[in-house]
Amino acid sequence: MEESFEVLVDPLRVFRLMSRHQINRSTATQVVAGQLCLDKVTHKNRRQAHLDKYRDRCIFSTAQSDGRPRVFAMHGQRIVIARVKAVRDYDVDYLPLGANLKPCGELQTEHKLSFKFGAYFDHAVKMQAAIGFCPQGADTAEMIVKPQHRYFISDKKLFGWVDAASTICIKTLEGEMVKGHLERIGRWEIGIDVCGVELVVFRHALANIQGFRWASSRDD
Question: What is the pLDDT of residues 180-214, one digit of tens each?
């Protein structure tokens, strides 16, 4: 059956698809035979490559390794400037800094769920106007401890926005809002391009994400 099926397709087209799009022979044969959509196959491959590259990236580990100061928005409507000193499975040690980037307190430990979003300190001025912060004295929100109770959005849907380079609007549990281009998708965080610099938003702090619809990956 396999041999008779292969006779019906152009082997040169199969070879060209394999070479050009780095797909296997079986997939290329099905594309040539009209059983698979090439756009959806390549989209799915790009998504997998993106997730393989960024899935385990973590702002805390990067901050610990490079030693550069970060600014974090925390649950409870707090803003912290800090250097990350140690990262464990569930919590982070950081040294609080003043606006002059000099230490202003003892080493602190915070649960990772306390963090809403963060960025390099020297990028904060660029993106500040693009973030809709809550007014002073606004109500705080409880951290959602159980993963099944958090806002869920699939990597498949998120990558549709990455691939389309479309603008999305993000709202956190405590009401901050920001618009930007989704640049990367990780297991615990997503990276947003805001005014040309990266804002990292933690997935446990999300309340909603809205963006334009796309067509290339709805049914892959």
Answer: 999 999 999 999 999 999 999 999 999 999 987 65
CB 69 within 8 A of CB 201: no
CA-wise closest residue to 51 among 134, 136, 156, 152: 156
187 sits in the region (left: phi over 0; alpha: psi -120 to 50; else beta) called alpha
The predicted pLDDT at position 6 comes to: 47
List, by residue range, all CATH 2.30.30.100 domains of the chain.
59-65+121-211
Tens digit of each residue's pLDDT (9 = 90 or more) over 123-146: 999 998 888 877 666 678 888 999
* Structure tokens given for 205: 């702090």
In angstroms, the first-to-last Cα distance of the chain is 26
Q: What pTM was estimated for this model as a whole? A: 0.85
CATH class of 59-65+121-211: mainly beta
CB distance 196 to 123 below 8 Å: no
Of 11-15, 85-89, 145-149, give the lowest mean pLDDT range: 11-15
Question: Tokens representing 12?
Answer: 């040169």
**Virtual torsion, Cα 56, 60, 64, 67, nearest 10 deg:** 120
**Range 187-212 burial, b when 16+ CB lie within 10 A, else e:** ebbbbbbbeebbbbbbbbbbbebebe
- The Cα 13–Cα 19 span in angstroms is 10
